[in-house]
Amino acid sequence: MKKLILLLWALIALTAEVSAQQALWGVPQVISPEINPDNTVTFRLKAPDVSQAFVTGDFLDWGKAPMTKTDDGMWQLTTDTLPAELYLYNYIVDGLSIADPSNVFTIRDVCTVFNYFIVPGNATELYNVCDVPHGTMRQIWYDSPSLGMKRRLNIYTPPGYEAGDNRYPVLYLLHGMGGDETAWAALGRAAQIFDNLIADGRMKPMIVVMPNGNASQEAAPGETHFGLVQPTVALPHTMDGAFEEAFPDIITFVDNTFRTVPDKAHRAIAGLSMGGFHSCHTSRLYPDKFDYVGLFSAAISPRDKSHTKIYDDIEGGLKRQFDQKPALYWIAIGDKDFLYEENRNFRALLDKGGYPYEYVESGGGHCWPNWRNYLTAFVQRLFK
Amino acid sequence: MKKLILLLWALIALTAEVSAQQALWGVPQVISPEINPDNTVTFRLKAPDVSQAFVTGDFLDWGKAPMTKTDDGMWQLTTDTLPAELYLYNYIVDGLSIADPSNVFTIRDVCTVFNYFIVPGNATELYNVCDVPHGTMRQIWYDSPSLGMKRRLNIYTPPGYEAGDNRYPVLYLLHGMGGDETAWAALGRAAQIFDNLIADGRMKPMIVVMPNGNASQEAAPGETHFGLVQPTVALPHTMDGAFEEAFPDIITFVDNTFRTVPDKAHRAIAGLSMGGFHSCHTSRLYPDKFDYVGLFSAAISPRDKSHTKIYDDIEGGLKRQFDQKPALYWIAIGDKDFLYEENRNFRALLDKGGYPYEYVESGGGHCWPNWRNYLTAFVQRLFK
Description:
2 copies of one chain form a homodimer. By secondary structure, chain A is an alpha/beta fold.
């Protein structure tokens, strides 16, 4: 009966007035990607009229793997068995890089929209929405007098926040260059990781604040008064000290708005790449604010000292910070990361000062699989 | 200096280890779409090796307009002047329907990912992020004992909610078939419309609750324990009464969790298409709950009575509802909507009972431009 009615609706919709109706009944004809039981993955693309089609993705180190055309115009490729991970990919069709038209699951990473899929296994169990209590994700605006604008934050509050009256510690979690306040939620699977770790008792319930580290922007691309301006990496004021100087605006807002424990012992800051840079220098600039610092594939050396003097005395700043004995200073980087040397030099500087830190060296490079792993490891160390 | 450093980073990243790094420096080479000063729109696609390229979109009534190839392999099309509106489009390249690779702004509408752009003018000023106080959008989970699952809501709280202690009226705002709790925020520009109308004093500050109307689902596709399952329209239990019967779970959660005014005079329900159907029957089923009802291009007649008896006595239910004199019963539909006749029949039924309602007949069909307009008109009538 139901099917009949749906069919009837579809027929009505496909008659004369279809042009004025929403495209409700466009059901995808092609299954792609298909995660096979042996964790190989099959990609498909129905495109009889194109002459070349490739898959590219992080599981191919962004190389191109040719798809094979079958008689009915279906292009297809099946990978080898892939390790459990969240993967990004695109197609290249007659020289044109496109999203997989059969996969609605997309993530914008900086300037490019990629499709994604998850190969199941131990490493990705934390990335799933499981039957556990869920925290709340908010897009909320705060006033930043230092930057002269309203700016947007993504904030995770743990399960039970709304129903209870507990106060919680706070992790400030920062994105990389070209990213924005949505990056950790989308590419980082942050809400899923937090929900699952908290349910397991492996992570203390905490508030996680994900600000926008681009000090010239109010929010993510498309979410500002600039309108639908395409994103770019080359934003002004990303690494010139403006963000670190304005950071107290965020802390003030968060402590005034949420049930935080507003002291150093209950405050952490961490970030990836440029966000690691911001974490390093913000925590150094305000040595009485953060007891936990996480640098994930962090940039360390100042790129631009034009705006402020905050990079003028890094060694003095580190001394002031470590004089206050942070509970955990945690550095992680992959052995193929282009910032590896920069991190080695920074560790030498810490060693020279006799400053204690923990160091995790993983495989791999400057990429999200590492950052999700670092986040997972780091949050389990906080506020314990 | 900054440029030099960025260049240096780029060079480092493009050497031996590029494959292990995030694709940070992929800057789009092509501007598309470009909204010209005369509100014509130019689409571009760099694809030297394809032999046919078309633009399709709602501004073309989903017909195909051929793009023209220039010598350097750039395909291009400039439209006529377009009225101010938010438009959806895709390309069709060698028979393949794809997103515009140069435009990261995409919206999933049911089963398809479309690009979008906004042509400026009076009608779309409300769709912009303006320099006004902003409300907060939350993705929050509630327990639905009636449906036996945790389910996700999108909730808008008005500017000032966090800082104050006022109580607010509540609008429950429902999506259509194939949609989910994210539809009104993404396709409906709901947060922008609310922020701008509230700033203008045209809309009372209110809480807006956007539930998921698919009673078999916890949340939007990809946000459930099913994992990354591609969306489909043909979900079970969408219009069989399960959602309406379980609606009190949502009200209970919202009234327990947010500072609402928990009475009929401060509660509204509205929705588009299937969401209009849900609004019609939920408000009828609980006649003491909603003082304001909005049916936007609503389905009215039951499609499936298999699950419950709630559709057995519609006339009796309407009598019970109108005996309690709702403050506003508001019906809007386009004169080309495929549900036009169904709405005419329903108005005849209301007329027969002598039940007061307001009726707005617009041009156009079953589509988001109408639904955004209806929302804008309806919310200005609430709680006044």
